[in-house]
Prior knowledge:
Shape: rod-shaped
Structural class: mainly beta
CATH class of the domain at 15-140: Mainly Beta
Strand content: 35-45%
Distance between the termini: 158 Å
Number of helices: 1
CATH topology of the domain at 15-140: Immunoglobulin-like
Helix content: under 10%
Oligomer: single chain
Radius of gyration: 57 Å
Amino acid sequence: MFRKAARSHYQTWFGPFVALVTTGAALADGVTTVFTYQGQLKLSGSPADGAYDMRFRLYDAATVGNQVGSMQVHDGVTNPAVNVVDGLFNVDLDFGGVFDGTALWLEIEVRPDGPDAYTTLQPRQPLTAAPFALFALNALDAGCCIWELNGSAAYYDGGNVGIGTNSPVAPLHVVGAIHSRDSASNGVHVFNPNAPNASVNLSWLNDVARIRYGGTGAGATNGLAIQGTGDSTKLRLLDNGDLGLGDDAPQARLHLRTSDLTLSSTALENDELIIEAQDAVMGLYSNNQGDWASAIALKEVNGGAVVDTWGIARRSSAAATGPSSLHFTYGPSDNYATNPAHMVIDSDGLVGIGTTTPAARLDVATSLPNDVIANFVKGLSNTNGVYVEMEGSCADCGTLRAVNTGAGAAVWARSESNGAQAPALVAQRLLGTGLSNAIAEFKVGNSNVAEINVDGGLRLTGGGELETWGDIRLVGGAEIRFNDGSVQSSAANVVSAGVSVNPPSISAGSNTVITVTVTGAAVGDAVVVNPGGNLNASYAISFARVSAADTVSIGLINPGPVTVDPGSTTWQFRIIK
């Protein structure tokens, strides 16, 4: 009984043990489809010796399967029997041109040379690389097989080719690195059969690596995209040079998008940079090793030269002067940092205009001939121009202050339409050499209408009248001087009183006189009286005078057609001494 030894003792070798012979149909270069099979045969665990009949079949599976090609018989009749010496043998086999890349297994039957039955050796032996080399050689016979020649080029169009894998899923499937080297800088090309201009080339130019899309002419119509899972666009380059990061339809030279805000092109202003996000932030990060840590330079170019430079710059926390401050610079220098700062905001929130070291919330330093000119449009409301809101109490809050030995501060009102001075112009002056003793002047145009002097005196000029909407209080020795020369010098010379008065009923066309007690009133004093409410249309006060000490007489008249009884109210009296 014959049996096949364990696989480690019965092996099939190819490669250097293959001998391709010239028997049978010759190929283009004399190589045939014959290959030499070598093996080892054991009988009951010991090496066999002598002549043995052997039959060989090819199958497309390790068990069962379909036979491929014809059976090869070496039985001393069809072909010579196989001579086995110390268990080793070799035999030439020729299954024809059956090697097309399909995996095949070799089945062997063996018996001692003679009429005995054959024993099938198990398992079948897989064919390895050497026989399949015949498949590549078949390319020399143009048109007969998958690999074919076109001049000096070999090609294969029968399926996928795998390098580093036995299950390719693309025409060329490579597992491992790809090394492309071409002295002509052609690199790797990927062609779009539907749009040749949309092809991509990975190569170099003048020692600079590049990814190039498009050939001659307009180039790729739809540009280049780098996409992730689900065809989500990570980077998009249009054929016009616009680049989008996170945006497959960039609307600017550089368009950065983290949130789609559905920007309308009509809302854009020829932007070169767009950052589109729920909370768009552009960060400039720097350390404190330099003076000018982070900056944006805005420059104008004329004929290739920079002629106008604005700068918005943050001075670092370690800067020698003005640390942790924001500077707005302007000037002719190409270097924004050497141009003067027109405005500075320091780390305490102080704002300086014309100074880099502000000493107040707003510190304006100027050498303009008109000092500081500021335009405030409406301010906090239609009536507020400059608005100062004081918090708590302090001795010097809410002041408009000028430090000068001449004119101090002026508040000018002008017409919005033609620039002319409005009627309510107010000017304030500080007392100085050559000026009057007025510390505040109120003008219409250039004409004074009122003055306040250093002693606190108030003068109405140009025939002005003093009209009161409430109490007039005189303190600190102040006085009221009338045109006739009389003086009201203190609040003690004005007697005020509220008295309940119930005028009598007055018939139509009649009049009467009533008296009211006002302590402190003296004959000759002036009397101002307010009846404490609206009188009936046909009821009037004809006179009011001090008729005796502490007594005020009031004349009442009813010129109307019916009797009037006004009722009781509290009347207010002012007795001016």
